[in-house]
Amino acid sequence: MIDTAMDRDVLIEIKDLVKHFPLGGGLLGSLAGNKDAVHAVNGVSFTIRRGEVIGIAGESGCGKSTTAKLLMKLFDPTSGTIEVDGKNLTMLKGDELKEYRRRAALMFQNPYESLNPRFTIERALHEPLIIHGVDDAAERDRRVRKAMDDVQLRPADYYLEKFPHQLSGGQLQRVVLARALILEPDFLVADEPVSMLDVSVRAGILNTMKDLSAKRNITVVYISHDLSLIQYLCDTTAIMYLGRVVEMGPTRTVIQDPQHPYTQALISTIPVPDPDREETPIPIKGGVPSALNIPSGCPFHPRCPYAMDVCSTAFPPAVEVNGVKVNCYLHVKGKTA
Ligand SMILES: Nc1ncnc2c1ncn2[C@@H]1O[C@H](COP(=O)(O)OP(=O)(O)OP(=O)(O)O)[C@@H](O)[C@H]1O
Ligand code: SF4
Ligand SMILES: [Mg+2]
Question: At CA 265, angle to CA 261 and CA 267, rounded to 5?
Answer without folding.
Answer: 115
